[in-house]
Tubulin-like protein CetZ
Amino acid sequence: MIGFGQAGGKVVDKFLEYDKRTGSEIVRAAAAVNTAKADLMGLEHIAEDQRVLIGQSRVKGHGVGADNELGAEIAEEDIDEVQGAIDSIPVHEVDAFLVVAGLGGGTGSGGAPVLAKHLKRIYTEPVYGLGILPGSDEGGIYTLNAARSFQTFVREVDNLMVFDNDAWRKTGESVQGGYEEINEEIVRRFGILFGAGEIQQGQEVAESVVDSSEIINTLSGGGVSTVGYAEEEVEERSSGGLLSRLRDDGNDEELDSAHTTNRITSLVRKAALGRLTLPCEIEGAERALLVLAGPPEYLNRKGIERGRKWLEEQTGSMEVRGGDYPYRGAGFVATVILLAGVTNVPRIKELQQVAIEAQDNLDEIREESDDNLDELVNDDSDELESLF
Ligand SMILES: Nc1nc2c(ncn2[C@@H]2O[C@H](COP(=O)(O)OP(=O)(O)OP(=O)(O)O)[C@@H](O)[C@H]2O)c(=O)[nH]1
């Protein structure tokens, strides 16, 4: 996982924290790349020798101030320094690369697509992007940056997973506090998704368990992806809750499994129809993956099969995969749905529209100022001598 820019670095840092907290091993290796020294110093879990400061000769460690063309130029010039950090990674142990960046600023917005292109040229492993869209209240330059970066990034990666800050922002919260919660949300969803492909040795592995090839197959084919999530608290069986009492009275087996199946079905609907990382119409998604995580006694084949069928109907896709992620002691059952190759995304259309208008305006403003300059320079009454 490589975080580019401030948002990218912070999210990758959070994934490492998630690994520590849950004992999972989603992140085989992590690095952060930035043009701003202070941002790199603020990270907590990414090793210091895996924090790469680029563009020092150009911006002296102060960032690129939302200029994503400069961000891209610097990334190209200093790509060897980034590669230096990646060289220390045992790449044969990784399933894929994930480049994470906020697309509204300068460093990550400009640099992430450059890095993705570089990785794809060198490695055979898939290269995915996790792109974070800015809030619509952040202003025009952020929208323009995001629209241009999005277009480039999606072309350079094997799949671009998207999280839209705009859909998740809460009013009345400080930006920092808001990001803290948002980053938790990102890591919870993608943590369960990527964790599903990371079943540890010694863990019981049922046939229906998701493996990393299913995630890779769902993502392959490119395009844009979004992720849905829903969870419900459950009691561990051994704790003597209602379900264990039902089990004790002899004729519970069927009732119990019907209950489990129904819970799974409703979780699948909630996840697909609730707030997605990138809100969109799920109809028309090209591929989907359904992951059901939780204590094994709360997972059943029938529930997943029903959920999968329902997703096939809703998306119209023939490529809907599904499986378990046994997670002992989780205290919850959660459903994660990856929808890949989505096309009907209002926010992306809106971004592109605003960006085209801004671009036109820019051209107009430039033309206007060229005319003004012409007038100014060629004005006969102007008595000032040219400097050159
Ligand atoms: N979800 C999330 N989004 C963030 C966070 N920090 C910033 N963003 C978003 O990411 C966009 C880019 O911001 P940064 O990552 O700070 O920018 P940068 O890539 O470091 O580039 P410069 O600061 O311009 O050099 C912003 O417009 C925000 O929308 C964060 O912690 N979490």
Q: What stands out?
A: The domain at 2-157 is CATH 3.40.50.1440 (Rossmann fold).
